[in-house]
Every structure is written in C-alpha cells, then in structure tokens.
Specification:
The chain is α/β, with parallel strands linked by helices and 470 residues long. The protein contains 21 helices and 9 strands.
Amino acid sequence: MTIDSQDIWSKCLGNIKSKIGEQGFDTWFKPIKPIKLDGKVLTIQVPSQFFYEYLEEHYVHLLRNVLNEELGNDYKLEYSVVVDKGNEFNKPYIVNLPNNGKAYSKGNGHSIAYTNPFDLQTIDRERQNSNLNVHYTFDNFIEGDCNRLARSAGVAVAQKPGVTSFNPLMLYGGVGLGKTHLVQAIGNEIKKINEKFVLYVSSEKFTNQFFEAIKNNNIQEFSNFYLQVDVLILDDVQFFEGKEKTQEIFFHIFNHLHQNGKQIIMTSDRPPRDLVGLMERLVSRFKWGLTADLQQPDYETRMAIIQRKMQADGINIPENVIEYLAYSIDTNVRDLEGVLISLIANASLIKKEVDLELARETLKNIVHDIDSEVGIDYIQKTISEYFKIPVDQLKDKTRKKEIVIARQIAMYFAKDYTNHSLKTIGDHFGGRDHSTVIHAVQAISDFCDTDPSFKKTVEDIRKKLKLKNV
C-alpha cells in the first residue's frame, strides 16, 4: 500500500497535538505543510528559517519520536525552508535534519582600535550606555498573537547574537506597536549576558552623523567607529529612502559587520519589499535574515497591557474598566498607554476613584469614534474580535459553520440592542432579507436554551456589549 505524505503528516499532527498545548500546536505545527514522502524521507515545508531553528531548538525530540511511532525508526525528516515569506521570488531550500543537533558557522571577527568620531563620548562610555533605554526589556513587553514571532526571534537573537540565521533581523509595523521597545529589549538582554559592544541609533541620527562627517572630512573615522560594533540596532530604516550617499556608506558597514558575524537589527514601518527609494542591493540584504511584523494588538493583548501597566504603577482599577478600555482603544499600544495616563491624571486631579463613568468621560476627549450607544457596526466589530474573524466575513456569502454561527449571533444582538428594522439589519449583513434575520434570532435563542456552553458564550459577548451602554 502506498503511503501518502498528507495522510502520514495528518497522523503525525494528531499525535503531536495530544502531546503539547493548543497554543504551541497552533503556532508551530499548523503552518507546516507536508511536501512529499520519498522512500524513507518525509519532507515538510516550514515558513521560515526561524521556524526551522525554533522547531530544532524546542521540538526536535518530539518530532523524531512521533515520526518513529508513525513510520518506524528507519525514516528520516527533511525540511523545506521558505527563505522569506514576504518575498514571492524566493524559493524554498532543503535542510537535512542532522543526527546530533544543529551546526552553526560564525565569522571570526577582529577588533579594531579606532577612535570615536562623534566627539561626544569615549568608546568605553559608548560601550556602557549604548543609547539604550534600560526600561525597555522583554519582561515588560507583552506578548500576543500580534507580535509572537517577532518577540520569539528577538529572544533567540539576544541569546546568540550573530550566530543564528536571522541576521539581519528586520522588524516592521505601524507606529506605536512596540518595535523600538522590542529591539532595545534585545540590546539590553545582550548587554546583560554578554560583553559585547551594542549600539542603538535611529536612522535619522545615523544620517546626521554621516553628514557631519562629510562636513568635517572624517568619513573614515565615522566608518571605523561603526565597524567596531558587535550588535548594531538601527531604528526606522525607511528614513534612508532617497539618501543615496547614506545608503552607500551603510551598505559597506552592513557588509563588513555581517561578514564578521556581527548582529544587525533593524526596524521599519514597512516590509523590505515596500521600501521605495532604497538601493536594490541594500534591500536584498535586508531580506537575508528574518523579517517579522508587529500588528495591532488584539483584545486579549490590550487587556494584558492595561493590567501590566496598572500593576507596575501600583494602581488598581476595576475589571469592567479594563475591559472597556481594551475594547475602546484598538489602534496601538502608544494610544492605549496615552489614555491610561490621561485617566490616572484625571482621577488624581478631581480626587475620584477610577470607575467606568470616569473612563467614558476621559475617552470622550481622546477617542472620536466611540458611539454613544451600541450600533450594528460596533456589534459586528465586537463579534469579529471575539471569534477572531474579519468583519467582512460576517457580511459575505460563506457558509462555513463558524462564520454562520458568528453572523447569527451578531444578528441576534443587532435585533436585541438596536431599533433597526429586520430589513435594515439584513442590509448590514450583505443584503440578506428579513427572514434570514428572523431565522438567526430564533436559532441563537434555541441554542441558548439547549446548550449551556453556547449560552455562556453569548452571555460573555453580551457582557462586553453592555459596557457600551453603561
């Protein structure tokens, strides 16, 4: 009987799922795709080099045991690694599973006794402070689905700077999502466990230093200083766009550091492929390592951020206020922290306990898109976040069971919380007719009567919606 790679990998996944937690399974095994079973070798495709190394670091024994259980001891595993998920032109390459762990190669860097061209500090002092904010650490960086890959990569780099294959490490995302916090946390962790020269610099500062070097005729000293760095953290690399000479000098610094096994970490507001006005050869080097994005924090992550921030400041606020803030501020971490500061300031000024009324009053002056009452759009948004599905899918024609249930719940609450007609409610859900809305309301009512677990879910959502009307 011929064994199919898809069938055997499905069996492996079932075996793996019974041995590890759901979060670990969803994060590290669901994205894997079986490619082929050729003789005694099963080939699986993983999304990136980081995935491969993380599996080898944490799950290698589990993979081998499961493979032995499903196929026998004489079968081997082979990885097909996608070089850069964001670059459609890069094809996967094959990495054989070694028998005795991973082998790393590291360049033999040499130290150069050049002087600091900035005339601001001595090299020793530069090594000590590195321009890092000591308050940016992994401990106070809240992990969630929105940043898990980026944070995991950062931890790996901090433990083995310049050694892992994700060099450079490029983190990208919009404003206020924690890019600067995360890269400085990497730098602080490296300095804590290694005697390395870590330097954090914004791309704007790097550019200004370079212009000063040109003006003062000390470009060589400028270059020599950066060539000494063991870990270079460059923030907001998109600032280099259109600055050809700055790109040229950074290109040579990048090459030297990378070839000598030094770690390069960068941030950008866009992925490398979307950076306009940068030299093609520089962008191609940005793709050599790992590119990871930071997204807007989901509801659970926003809750955790608020709780951690209040705990750190020694302030207790009611759970319903935390939930209200987490639902109301869904843009980025910076906005969320700004609201918390305003809320605590208001409470201090008027000498009042933090409660839901004060939270709503504070947000009126900050957030402009908070409705005075629950509307259909808000209900759809709440359902979308609760079930982690896009709002658009609540409106389209898909008949997937989980989407249909979510859509019916949304219709149920739209009928309960708004004064809209059944036809208007149907119009908000992709132009469905009033009979569909009636059926949805009845179906949810019936489910609540017969299924206690389902009823609990509906009541949990109702609790979140009630925060809007308090």
